[in-house]
Amino acid sequence: MALRARALYDFRSENPGEISLREHEVLSLCSEQDIEGWLEGVNSRGDRGLFPASYVQVIRAPAAEPPPPARYANVPAGGFELLTSPNAFKPPPAAAEPLPQPPVPAGYPFPAPYGGSYQPSQGSDDDWDDDWDDSSTVADEPGALGGSYAEFEASGGGGTSGRYRMSTRSEPSLGSRGVGGHPAGHPHPPGGSGAKSSATVSRNLNRFSTFVKSGGEAFVLGEASGFVKDGDKLCVVLGPQGPEWQENPYPFQCSIEDPTKQTKFKGMKSYIAYKLVPSHTGQQVHRRYKHFDWLYGRLAEKFPVISVPHLPEKQATGRFEEDFISKRRKGLAWWMDHMCSHPVLAQCDAFQHFLTCPSTDEKAWKQGKRKAEKDEMVGANFFLTISVPMGPGASLDLQDVESQVDGFKAFTKKMDESALQLNHTANEFARKQVTGFKKEYQKVGHSFKCLSQAFELDQQAISAGLNQAIAFTAEAYDAIGDLFADQPRQDLDPVMDLLALYQGHLANFPDIIHVQKGALTKVKESKRHVEEGKMELQKAEGIQERCNIISFATLAEINHFHKIRVRDFKSQMQHFLQQQILFFQKVTQKLEEALHKYDSV
């Protein structure tokens, strides 16, 4: 007898490994055993995956084919709870047998190196060694783990203490069971007979998604708790274009100058140090690339809904070549400009420590570094620091927010494509100017020179002026070739540097949008539960309020991106055209000088 089930309600998959169901659809089951309220099977379209057990009714009918082997049949009840619940890390009672380790579901992504907390790369660049680090790393520090996982300690009876509580004040904990035997955090059937409080918003089965790793899911479900200091608050205000980050009351800039090669260990180790001069202190400090890399890691971990600009890429060889150092300095200057221009990033404690800590005070640097790495306002707790407008007219319409975010998503996709195209075109054009154009103009110059040399065989005085004019024309074309070769440094290279910076921003926004979309999905699910009489209105309103906080922050970041984009591309296009005009004026001047030589012939 083949195991089959009939879908009682529609279900739309939202995560990898899930399949969608249509009401009255008949499915083939891989096993009758549910995994935390989920079954595995094959729908009528041939898709195989997981779906809520409470959305189907198991039926038995004769069938010639045996059921497909279950990929999750050996997962014990509560198996997926081991992946998400901090209680799963508690040592089991002495009398109980240890639970088997559940397998990772087929098709799920393995944890990426950047799993909610950035780890600086340990490449062959000069930028990583232990000269200013003690023996501990971020992971070694208590409470250094970010994301949605709780910090735990094995002391006494094996209790846990989290950076933020994994249990909510209004919902059952992740490891508890709901009313009627349904696992907490998984969907209940619409129209069920349970009490209103029995239904809870489902958790993403993919625990490696950005929405989960960033702490967005835990925050929306009400599981974040912590004490927010006034200095940690990030304010969103309503501006002419909608939500905006509150402006920095003390704006500043920071120059990056004089990259110098320095040594240590009696010359055994060499590195490049950059001089930073913040305008609000006027005190210069020296930082290596690894310090920039450390700061980027802290900021990328702390701010899941803010686009932290990417640093210029590393390079394993040629790190001390003049061209590479100059290019990196320009990239760092763009990076620093975007950091100082962001109302939130510019005021971050870690960034201020980076800018102001004296280069020679190693003790102060380590203290500030450890403080940043032990920051409790990360993961779900970060969203507690966001203060949004309150009162009449300050609420967001979810459909309008979804429309704006979808529009921005389409915009970033198109901008990314056009930026790649422009970067390729500019790079190819620069290559032609440096090699092809220079060679062609100098070939013309050489031809004129040969003509001049031929005319010099005529010893008559009447041709002397002409010979000199033609020789000068040859020199003019040689000089024009050199102008072409040097010109990309003046106009095209700055454009490509700007495109590289914005390609980093565009790579950040899919994750930012994913967090907002995940929150919006939870709101829709809670509204459905309320309409079906399975969730209290107060609980659903709490989910919507927390989603609004994420939406306000997302829209504020989108508006900041557009504001800076208009500023940067206006300035850069003006600079590009000005340099083009100067270039052709120089070319024209060379040609006019050559022309005047013929006046006296």
From TrEMBL:
Organism encoding this protein: Rhinopomastus cyanomelas (Common scimitarbill)
Region (Disordered): 84-200
Protein name: SNX18 protein
Topological category with respect to the lipid bilayer: Peripheral membrane protein
Annotated GO CC locations: cytoplasmic vesicle membrane; plasma membrane
Major subcellular location class: membrane
GO biological-process terms attached to the record: cleavage furrow formation; endocytosis; endosomal transport; mitotic cell cycle; plasma membrane tubulation; protein transport
Chain sites annotated for binding a 1,2-diacyl-sn-glycero-3-phospho-(1D-myo-inositol-4,5-bisphosphate): 288, 290, 328
Alphabetical keyword list: Cell cycle, Cell division, Cytoplasmic vesicle, Endocytosis, Membrane, Mitosis, Protein transport, SH3 domain, Transport
GO molecular function, one term: phosphatidylinositol binding
Domain SH3 per the UniProt entry, residue ranges: 1-61
A Pfam family matched in the record: SH3_9
Domain of life the protein comes from: Eukaryota
Family according to the record: Belongs to the sorting nexin family.
Sequence ranges of Pro residues compositional bias: 89-112
Source taxonomy: Eukaryota, Metazoa, Chordata, Craniata, Vertebrata
Compositionally skewed regions (Acidic residues) per UniProt: 124-134
Boundaries of every PX domain copy: 252-362
Keyword S-adenosyl-L-methionine recorded: no
Compartments it resides in: Cytoplasmic vesicle membrane
